[in-house]
């Protein structure tokens, strides 16, 4: 801080000498003022020793003048630019000494570099030598997509900054997880990425996941994506400079600038290109598309059984029952409560569910009770798998069981220990024969918020030793561990974490992982590593079937190993609306296709009309689970007449569409095509669609437009200029690029339209379980577009096998206006048939039905 500024601060602080808190506040403000002033005077770097080849560029970057705005400058950097494919450009700026932390390759594997030619690339890289700045342009048009010329690069030990210009009034999406508008605000807006416990999913604050990728949609000019491969805490700011220039700025408390630029040019292209970078999503088993029920607060296994029986008596299909932490003894993983959830009775219920074609899932938390005589802790301690404090003892905190320790997912023994615990407790012959696992509290959430805390409920005290970070405990020194001598608790640049300090409500950020890295750098992927370890354990338990893992905490690439639900929302109309934009962020932008909210809300008390609407909305989203907190009233679908009526219709319709949804999930796992998308993905030139966040395309055929206003029976929805058909009546409607209003929408109704030009495969009837559903025949709905043609597809397999081999059918449907044809591959053997093909949009709106049956063992069709 300059001497003149220090003198100013001293005078201001001295004026308030009688008020200690103002003294402190003044010094903090002056410090921030000084940091800002120093940032504005930073000169950046100069590029030297530039070497350029056809598919890459490398250079050294040397500091021009001292900056040290928030920490020590790193004076020598390296620049690597790779034209990896024709549509992907990689730009990496790192320290020359390879000390700064980079995400471990096994945590988030890098995509393969295909060494594309720069001359054929859709993206072009250029740079200014001094001060160093770079830009990325679209080769076909010359349009600038990313340009850092306005502000110098800052690269310090605990603060790195880069700013890019944006066009005026940009359409920016992504940077999840958040509950804000789907199209992000672009004036004085900050997206903080730092995973945290976040009840009530507040707007404007960081939530459970971090996904540092954004889509920039520019209408007819195309869409591109930018992914920063960084797990460090950051603020991404969108705003306007004093000169009126729109910008996006990264403010990161560590790590490197590791960018992947994705050319698009269509929105779906960007989604697929991003999935290639972070990994294609795992394909889920068929049964998880059924309806799920859970509640924290079921007092006994008998009560759980009563819920199952009541759903059956009410005629509401229930696919899967879930067990929250109620089942545990003293909230300890891998235990059951001997009196309320005796193991034998739990096994009996699970067997009963399986006999009826239903399923069962249980929860696990990462906090392992530090208690003598608790075998899971004892075995983990023997294998040294828990995170350690600076003094070498196990780092301790507080979760549901009381005093706990946390697994170190980077320890070489942790996977083996975790797999062993899961195989022991979930042994099909002697334990709880679950069908999937749910990992919660894995940000990680720590109820111990200070160096010591006391919980009267368990009469235990937890003590956390801050101490000094240990550099490395295991193996030989390796690069990218993080620069030494950093302040791992209180970096001078403070990201806008919901809870203040970055260690608040989580693991201390100076904790050293087994590989020598620190929680300061790896915090954001702790939960994703737990989810991955759980998936691996389930595969060890049964390698033949697709494992199902649901996780609360997420990071880029989590779709490879787990599904996600949106955490502890509330029974509020605004959270009902929020679930739509949260879904779209994950399915369309973050390569996580199997997601959903707690239907009817987790916290607070649901109301009948809201829950009825939510039962309908949830049926048209990938993951469909009713779940409530222990403090909330019961909200099972059978408790209210309106909700029962709505749920029956919702599940009946969902199950008829289940193979259509399953096909879209298969496509997502095969090439990253989103299974649910915003309207602008399909109408990228229609500016009216850019801000729509209460409608969505489910697959490529269905537009869902729920009632969104509180306690309303009216809805306004937008139909782009295309041919549309009412899903319920088959009535043809010209969208006209206009907003339409529908009044009198009953509590068991939800507006849905079929997009012209698509073909929809549906089961002829619903069923009580997905196993029974798979025995039902199909009908095919043909919805011709403006040119009179339509196409669609259907994917079939056994619904469970991890490797189906050739036992699958990939069937394409085509309508050319006069004839219908089904062709493709037909490797899946089934007795199920297509009963009829229904062609919409005939003369005068006529609906023509062509009766079958046709088998699904080979090609078939007909001609008018």
TrEMBL record:
EC number: 3.2.1.20
Catalysed reactions, as listed in the record: Hydrolysis of terminal, non-reducing (1->4)-linked alpha-D-glucose residues with release of alpha-D-glucose
Membrane-spanning ranges: none
A Pfam family of this chain: Gal_mutarotas_2
Keywords recorded for this protein, A-Z: Glycosidase, Hydrolase, Signal
InterPro entries: Gal_mutarotase_sf_dom, GH, Glyco_hydro_31_AS, Glyco_hydro_31_C, Glyco_hydro_31_N_dom, Glyco_hydro_31_TIM, Glyco_hydro_b
Keyword Nucleus carried by entry: no
Residues annotated as domain Glycosyl hydrolase family 31 C-terminal: 672-760
Signal keyword on record: yes
Residue ranges constituting the Glycoside hydrolase family 31 TIM barrel domain according to the UniProt record: 281-663
Family assignment from sequence similarity: Belongs to the glycosyl hydrolase 31 family.
PANTHER family linked to this entry: ALPHA-GLUCOSIDASE (PTHR22762), ALPHA_BETA-GLUCOSIDASE AGDC-RELATED (PTHR22762:SF95)
Protein name: alpha-glucosidase
Natural source organism: Podospora pseudocomata
